[in-house]
Specification:
Elements lengths: L2 H16 L4 E9 L6 H12 L8 E7 L2 E4 L5 E2 L17 E5 L3 E8 L3
Helix pairs in contact: 1-2
Length: 113
């Protein structure tokens, strides 16, 4: 369950960014290629923060689709069905991933004092 270690890393980022201010919501961008289970991530967040100033805060996850750019035909596509990293347009395997690998803390909602 790598979600637990991810939550520990998120907590470190949030602790530094919040500078002691109470946090209500942590906003994340998570690419679908990261293979993170959102429910497990939220559960682990509760475990990691339960005895800390972040207790009671929640995660808001923005899922980022995988987008590929084909070097052969230059078309940008989103894979459909089972993940196959090939161009949907021409079938070439010479693609680069434009989005889908994100794992970012994008913002924090602070609690009102």
């Amino acid at each position: 369950m790598h979600e637990l270690s991810l939550c520990n890393a998120i907590r470190g980022v949030v602790d530094r960014a919040a500078e002691g201010r109470p946090v209500d919501t942590v906003h994340l961008q998570v690419g679908k290629f990261r293979q993170v289970v959102p429910e497990t991530l939220c559960y682990c967040w509760g475990l990691v923060t339960e005895a800390s100033p972040l207790a009671g805060s929640t995660l808001s996850i923005d899922h980022v689709d995988i987008r590929l750019k084909c070097a052969a035909c230059t078309v940008e596509t989103t894979p459909q069905g089972p993940l196959a990293l090939v161009c949907v347009n021409c079938g070439s395997g010479d693609v680069s991933m434009l989005t889908g690998e994100e794992f970012l803390v994008t913002s924090l909602d602070l609690k009102e004092s």
